[in-house]
Amino acid sequence: MFAPSAPRLARDRWVAGLAGALAVGCLAFATAPVVAAPSPNRANVVFIVADDLRTDLGTYGHPEALTPHLDALARRGVRFDRAYCQQAVCNPSRASVLTGQRPDVLRVWDLWTHFRDTLPDAVTLPQHFRAHGYHAVSLGKVFHNQGVRQRPTFPFADPVSWSEPPKFAEGAHWQDWVVPGQPGPPERRGGATQCLDVPDDAYFDGQIATAATRRLRTLRDKGQPFFLAVGFWKPHLPFNAPKRYWDLYDRTQLAPPASTLPPEGAPALAGHHSPELRSYEGIPKEGPLPREQVAELRHGYLAAVTFLDAQVGRVLAALRDLGLEDSTIVVFWSDHGFHLGESALWGKSTNYERDTRVPLIIAAPGHGKAGTSTRALVELVDLFPTLTELCGLPTPIDLAGISLAPVLRQPSLPGKEYAVSQHPRPYFNGQLTVMGYTLRSQEHRYVEWRSVASGEIVAQELYESASSAAEVRNVIDAPLRQSARLRLEAAALRLAPPLRQPAL
Questions:
Q1: What is the predicted pLDDT for the residue at 500?
Q2: What total number of domains does the chain contain?
Q3: Which residues are catalytic?
Q4: Would you say residue 118 lies in a domain?
Q5: How many whole angstroms separate alpha carbon 19 and alpha carbon 16?
Q6: pTM of the predicted model as reported, rounded to 2 decimal places
């Protein structure tokens, strides 16, 4: 296994110099003429999504993550510290964001169902912008990716949402892999990490960033407001990034998982056996991972995060050098979080804080004070109405979310009373039998597991402080917590009515 050292000098030079290097790389854009900016109500939108990224960013206070470009984006926008996805797995989360509907309305809870199978006439966020004069472009994994064996009725990239065919949207994550001496992807799934001395464009995200920087120039020259969605595939497994990103971290100095035990008193169905990670070569099929492998995986995740950050930086540098920064709203978000050995979990697909909480940064010129943060409770389903309001477009009346524009203007607002997420059991495969709903309040995380057939509650969880560090003991039966329990039960019934039928 690769175990590089990371000299502090190289690390410090990289942090100080990468932004400058990227700027130099984009100087060609600066020589092109700058067209007049659209009116304030016709701002452009650059909609950037990451995959499996938890809040391991410098701007969120992570002590190890090197993310200078996302940190810089936060300094010119508003950082949301309590943003939550609606289901912690790719397809349902992305379908929810891009349609403005919750998973139960879409009836999308797995990796194979397309939202148009159940709501064929749904109007997506980019489709709505396109209908109001925007040129909508998709580069990368924006909706769910079309896997090797996945052939739904509708392509997952949803071509009807875009003004031109989506690009970089097909393939399986394990195909984002370099086979030395062989062009093209591997024929089968390999290991969970890879560290090779290759250029950024050897991996999907480098290619996507290159395409996005070029596309920004043609979109600017087109003279039409645009909606550019850029979907990066990292830091999703496999944890691979060019060697120079691995070298920025000293593995021996990285922290181990905070707690490797499941929450005390949690029902067994709340967790899982980490099947996603265990499908990769070299990972034990059951039981705990060796300490050295845990360290390598956590190292690889951070390397992938910094690699992702560098690609985001390339896009933002092009936006700046093309004279588009002041007329473009930038939204950065992740579809869900991820466990890295905490709570005996690897992967997503739980109703816990590390899986449901996501980074969210909105930089909207003229809306809000740059460099602020908010602790308002918000949901990703709020992005659709937020962008329509910021861009002066009509907002569809049937959306599940609410606009975050008031929070941008006044970050001290509390936001929602609850953020609602959910996840079914079984984990992925098999007939849906139990649905778990979680309510995140300012003080608690409440999880309610219900039988799909009867609607009856089969298990409950309650955690105080509602932070990942506090999710160590289920206090649902504690005598002093019964008033909170009753209040949260009532709220769950109101916000997430029971499903009384099996999955379609």
A1: 62
A2: 1
A3: 90, 144
A4: yes
A5: 7
A6: 0.91
Beta-bridge mates of residue 504:
none
Here the tokens at position 238 are 């496999």
Which domain does 166 fall in, by range?
8-184+195-416
Tokens, residue 414: 């509390």
Q: What is the pLDDT of residues 382-430, one digit of tens each?
A: 999 999 999 999 999 999 999 999 999 999 999 999 999 999 999 766 6
pLDDT of residue 68: 98
- What's the pLDDT at 423? 97
Instruction: Inform me whether the pLDDT recorded for 14 exceeds 50.
Output: no
Query: In this structure, is residue 94 part of a structural domain?
Result: yes
In DSSP notation, 12-58 reads HHHHHHHHHHHHHHTHHHHTSPPPPPPPGGG-EEEEEEESS--S-SG
| DSSP summary character for residue 146 | B
Domain-located, residue 45: yes
Q: Return the half-sphere exposure (C-beta side, CA atoms, 13 A cut-off) of residue 178.
A: 21
- What 3-state DSSP class applies to 93? helix
Strand locations in 366-454, DSSP E? 372-379, 419-425, 434-440, 444-451
Which pair of tokens denotes residue 96?
């929810």
Q: Which CATH number fits the domain that encloses residue 86?
A: 3.40.720.10
Question: Pairing relation of β-strands 328-334 and 44-50?
Answer: parallel
SS3 per-residue string spanning 166-183: CECCECCHHHCCCECCEC
In a domain, 437, yes or no: no
The tokens for 188 are 């089968």
Give the count of alpha carbons within 13 A of 173, CB side only: 22
482 C-beta neighbours (distance < 10 Å), count: 12
Q: Rounded distance, CA 43 to CA 25, Å?
A: 26
Tokens of 452: 């799909």
Report the pLDDT averaged over residues 362-371. Answer: 94
- Phi/psi of residue 288, each to 5°? -70, 155
